[in-house]
Design goal:
Blueprint lengths: L1 E6 L9 H18 L3 E4 L13 H11 L4 E4 L2 E2 L5 H14 L4 E6 L5 H7 L11 H12 L23 E6 L5 H6 L3 E5 L7 H16 L6 E9 L3 H21 L8 H7 L2 H4 L14 E3 L1 H15 L3 E5 L5 H14 L7
Parallel strand pairs: 1-2, 1-10, 2-3, 3-5, 4-5, 5-6, 6-7, 7-8, 8-9, 8-10
């Protein structure tokens, strides 16, 4: 099994975004040392608790700080950007770290105001042309026919012998068929929509088998997970994410990441005791437990989805506890450098 990481650059309580960005580079080095397969950086705008606003910058820094691990975006929010600019940026990253760059494409809203701030043309309603945008990115990368468009004479890959690996990220399953038909990797965000994960990933596998055959069914499952020495301690650490989501829903705005103590004071007993393992066949939004507990959950999930790679999201307030969680998980799954 491959183990990977999606990094949000969590701002630890009592610190600031510059410190969070330094922690990001430490996380990349640690992940490589532990044998993680890839590390992706998220794109979150107008957030007090996370410093990952520009994954391209973090990818470049992390690629320079490491030598083996794959580095990429989880995801570039393509609905906000020019496909040509995205293709040029990731070709440049690929030139800097050949064979190690992943271009994860997604779409999301950060709310009406941020969406408007990210747009250059604010007088025309945005078009729902995500699939066309993906195909245009692939054409600019030289990975898809151009079909004689007005941009056919442009040649962004000139002088760059390799290409980034392209993935589509989703949380509803609607992009599974698109990814398979285009021969792209598919990453499902199980921490957003856990109930739909098996169906979406099996759907992608079936389409990929029909289109490209059994040789290329690149897919991964992303889950939120916290590992500690005991089940009780892991559950306690998991309260940070639960409280952060509750704060965001309650206030409708971005809030700082709470400490475990703040989370304990804010959450109800029901929220603290929400399932963190598969219960009555239903997947939790966050796995938490000892190494043995989390290993068992991940093995059940990979069996149900047919994937051989799991990507971890871990919103833990304390950087040392977060690093320890990543170490324990790598050991539990038998991951090692070069594996």
């Amino acid at each position: 099994m491959k183990l990977s990481l999606v990094e949000l650059a969590t701002v630890a309580p009592g610190t600031d975004k510059p410190q969070a960005l330094n922690d990001v580079l430490d996380a990349a080095r640690q992940a490589e040392d532990l044998g993680y397969h890839r590390i992706w950086y998220a794109e979150h705008h107008d957030t007090a608790g996370f410093a990952a606003q520009a994954p391209e910058i973090l990818i470049a820094l992390a690629a320079r700080a490491t030598s083996r691990i794959r580095v990429g975006s989880g995801a570039v929010l393509l609905n906000h950007y020019s496909p040509y600019k995205v293709a040029e940026t990731f070709l440049q990253l690929e030139a800097l770290a050949p064979g190690r760059i992943d271009l994860g494409l997604g779409r999301a809203t950060a709310g009406p105001l941020v969406d408007l701030a990210l747009r250059r043309d604010r007088h025309t309603p945005p078009a729902d042309d995500y699939n066309q945008q993906i195909e245009e990115v692939l054409a600019h990368l030289g990975l898809h026919p151009d079909h004689g468009s007005a941009f056919a004479r442009l040649d962004p890959p000139a002088g760059i012998p390799t290409r980034p690996q392209v993935w589509i990220l989703g949380s509803s399953g609607t992009s599974a068929q698109t990814a398979a038909e285009l021969g792209l990797g598919y990453a499902f965000a199980g921490f957003i929509n856990p109930d739909a994960a098996p169906r979406a990933l099996l759907r992608h596998g079936a389409y990929a088998h029909a289109v490209t055959g059994p040789a290329d069914r690149r897919a991964l499952l992303a889950v939120s997970a916290v590992v500690a020495d005991t089940d009780a301690e892991a559950r306690r650490l998991s309260w940070t994410r639960t409280a952060l989501l509750a704060r965001t829903i309650r206030t409708g705005t971005s809030t700082p990441v709470p400490t475990v103590e703040e989370a304990a004071a804010e959450l109800s007993d029901a929220e603290k005791n929400a399932p963190t393992v598969i219960t009555d066949g239903r997947w939790p939004r966050q796995i938490a437990g000892s190494p043995a507990t989390v290993r068992d959950q991940i093995e059940q999930m990979t069996k149900a989805t047919g994937v051989d790679e799991v990507m971890i999201q871990d919103i833990v307030a304390d950087p040392e506890a977060r690093a320890h969680s990543r170490t324990l998980l790598a050991q539990a799954l038998g991951i090692s450098p070069g594996a």
